[in-house]
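About this split. The held-out portion is used to measure sequence recovery: a designer receives only the structure tokens and must propose an amino acid at every position. Recovery is the fraction of positions where the proposal matches the reference. Here is one held-out target exactly as it appears in the evaluation file.
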């Protein structure tokens, strides 16, 4: 759903929430429905296993067979050339996957461990992994946004979105609805996962969590 295109009240209604936030019981139900708010964890692979894995690709296997056949018929020059190509592809693939794993770890470290929410009208500080769609976040300077959220209130609110959009200066936020085709980096009424509140304060209702967030799509 294009949350940035809807009015504040329509967003809250669509999420089955309210300005007082979700009740504790409803939050528990949604946590069971949507799962914890975190990036998908992948089993760690050793660098050696990662490198060996590069040679399991079908095309690489065909090239390895070509090396053997070239050697058998004494086309040694061709065998060496193909071997160099295979080794280059293996190293390149290894470097890309290794960097991707490190980048994923860096993304996870950018998520805040706790956040203040309204549950049944009462302020509570809860682990960010327990955030669910419909939760009402209370934001102030220094907070890291734990989930993509549609702003309900914004008072001189600015967010550092460099980790998501590459924007070098803090972005001013407001609650006005925007055209449906507004690109991500121009959605000034959305507080994105992994970004940081640099000044002001605000209130926002969570619209997506975990891998469904814009941050999660990057991680994917």
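Reference sequence for scoring:
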């Amino acid at each position: 759903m294009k949350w940035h295109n809807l009015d504040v009240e329509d967003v809250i209604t669509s999420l089955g929430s309210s300005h007082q936030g979700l009740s504790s019981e409803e939050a528990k139900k949604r946590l069971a429905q949507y799962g914890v708010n975190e990036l998908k964890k992948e089993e760690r692979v050793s660098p050696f296993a990662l490198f060996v894995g590069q040679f399991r690709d079908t095309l690489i296997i065909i090239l390895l067979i070509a090396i053997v056949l070239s050697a058998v018929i004494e086309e040694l020059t061709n065998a060496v050339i193909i071997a160099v190509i295979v080794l280059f592809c293996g190293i390149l693939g290894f470097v890309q996957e290794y960097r991707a794993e490190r980048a994923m770890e860096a993304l996870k470290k950018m998520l805040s461990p706790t956040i203040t929410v309204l549950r049944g009208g009462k302020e509570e500080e809860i682990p960010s992994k327990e955030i669910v769609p419909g939760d009402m976040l209370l934001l102030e300077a220094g907070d890291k946004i734990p989930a993509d959220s549609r702003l309900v209130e914004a008072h001189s609110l600015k967010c550092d979105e460099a980790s998501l959009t590459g924007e070098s200066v803090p972005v001013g936020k407001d609650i006005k609805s925007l055209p449906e085709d507004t690109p991500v980096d121009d959605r000034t009424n959305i507080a994105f996962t992994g970004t940081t509140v640099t000044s002001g304060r605000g209130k926002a209702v969570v619209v997506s969590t975990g891998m469904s967030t814009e941050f999660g799509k990057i991680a994917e």
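Annotator remark: The chain is about 40% helix and 20% strand.
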